Amino acid sequence: MTQKPKPLQSIKVDGPIPAHLARSIIEETLRAAILDGRLPCGTALRQQDLADLFGVSRMPVREALRQLEAQELLSVTAHKGAVVAPLIQGDATETYELRILLETAALRQSIPRLSAADCQRAAGYIEELEAQHDYTEIGRLNRLFHMALYGKAPNRRLLRLVEDGLNEEERFLRFNLEAMGLGKLSQEDHRQLLEAAQDRNVELSVKLLEQHLNRGVEVITRYLASPAAQNRKAVR
Prior knowledge:
CATH class of the largest domain: Mainly Alpha
InterPro entries: GntR_C (IPR011711), TF_FadR/GntR_C (IPR008920), Tscrpt_reg_HTH_GntR (IPR000524), WH-like_DNA-bd_sf (IPR036388), WH_DNA-bd_sf (IPR036390)
Protein name: GntR family transcriptional regulator
Organism: Pseudomonas monsensis
Keywords: DNA-binding, Transcription, Transcription regulation
Domain HTH gntR-type: 20-87
Number of strands: 3
Radius of gyration: 19 Å
Order of helices and strands: HEHHEEHHHHHHH
Largest sheet: 3 strands, antiparallel
Oligomer: single chain
Structural class: mainly alpha
């Protein structure tokens, strides 16, 4: 009889974890495993199993799970406890409406504080995206590009919410971008957005970002309604 795979077996822990670093190491290890798919959507993460895996007490595990729940990578459900959250589904429009509010606010705050180095770093991500064919990397580079433009916003709580939305999008793109059949992804939106930010043109930057995100929700909504997406959902 074939045994079901155990997702936690994909996580390797090297040696004892220092007590003062336990929470952050557990959080970052689980976060990476969720983002790269080693811990699929719907995976239940039990505190005692994680404590045994990392060789720690349940306290730092509990704290790490709370952090991941705050980042919307986990959800807490009755009888199952902490569960890896689903990818963007039928609420794509609502998700992107919220992202537009949060990201335009972060962009407004950040643009006056951007340095030449920030803009150069963002330009570098565009160049990497132009050359990238690995779908698992495209979502990561997209997130890094946007955060390079938002990162100087002084409201750190706002930035955490923004990055949560980008993390969700990264996970979705990682597992669905190839099936969406978009071919070569144009970076023209990103180039125009960066150029406006470099010119310190806040209103134009915000307008371009809104257009960019609205195009994104149109593509994702159309894909989620397609037979291809329904078939992928059925086999998961």
